[in-house]
């Protein structure tokens, strides 16, 4: 199952509207819609906030979605690169 489906299911399980979720994690309602419809992927910090809000583990949200895992790996590589560059 892709993260978009998991996010939609978790929100429904938490009995929350997209507007409520957006307000609680500090994004727009449209952003929540884009994530749930698979148009865009949430950033790592947003996934952590959603995990806390929906009271589900990060594993439950992330595992099984190769696009999201690639995004996390790329973000991690960029972070390491930025850290390396700053140390010069």
Largest sheet: none
Class of secondary structure makeup? mainly alpha
Q: What is the general shape? A: globular
Give the number of helices. Answer: 6
Total count of strands:
0
Order of helices and strands, N to C?
Answer: HHHHHH
Radius of gyration: 14 Å
Terminal CA distance reads 42 Å
Low-confidence sequence ranges: none
Helix content: over 70%
TL;DR of this structure?
With about 90 residues, the chain is mainly alpha-helical. Helices cover about 75% and strands about 0% of the residues.
Give a description of the structure.
Helix content is 73%, strand content 0%. The protein contains 6 helices and no strands. It is globular. The mean pLDDT is 86.
Key features?
globular, mainly alpha, 88 residues
Blueprint of the fold:
Blueprint (H helix, E strand, L loop, with lengths): L2 H11 L4 H8 L3 H8 L7 H11 L3 H5 L3 H21 L2
